[in-house]
UniProtKB/TrEMBL annotation:
Cross-referenced SUPFAM superfamilies: Transposase IS200-like
GO molecular function: DNA binding; transposase activity
Protein name per the record: Transposase IS200-family protein
NCBIfam families per record: transpos_IS200 (NF033573)
Biological-process GO terms, alphabetical: DNA transposition
InterPro entries in the record: Transposase_17, Transposase_17_sf
Domain Transposase IS200-like: 5-119
Amino acid sequence: MGNTYASLQYHFVFSTKLRKPWIHHEIEDRVWRFLGGFAREVGMAPILVGGMPDHIHMAVGGHPTMAISKAIQQIKGGSSKWMREAFPEMKGFAWQDGYGAFSVSKSNLPALTTYIANQRKHHRKKTFKEEFVALLNRHGIDYDERYLWD
């Protein structure tokens, strides 16, 4: 085959350090837009970014040459720096050390974007911890509860 063809979509999830509610309603649109723009800068194609005050969800398209760990490292690092500079009251802001990265088929993107868009409704019934463990279980990822949280 003379060319490379790929359809790579991902669901990234990560929280603020110690799940502190830093991302207030008044700034969330700016934060989501910045994260999407920064994802684009590092070679990802943002589809939808959203979340809650203590965590984010990103639906992104990937490029076959981009390592997921590198993309997330750059997104988290660049956005942490920007948030501390853009919002002086957030001098202590940081993301958690780890993250969740889940592959998503093209046919499941509508369900994922609906899920991200409805985070407020979703979190009336489920905490971030419950949500994240459910994602790990749904994707068949082994984990040790002792190492999930800061």
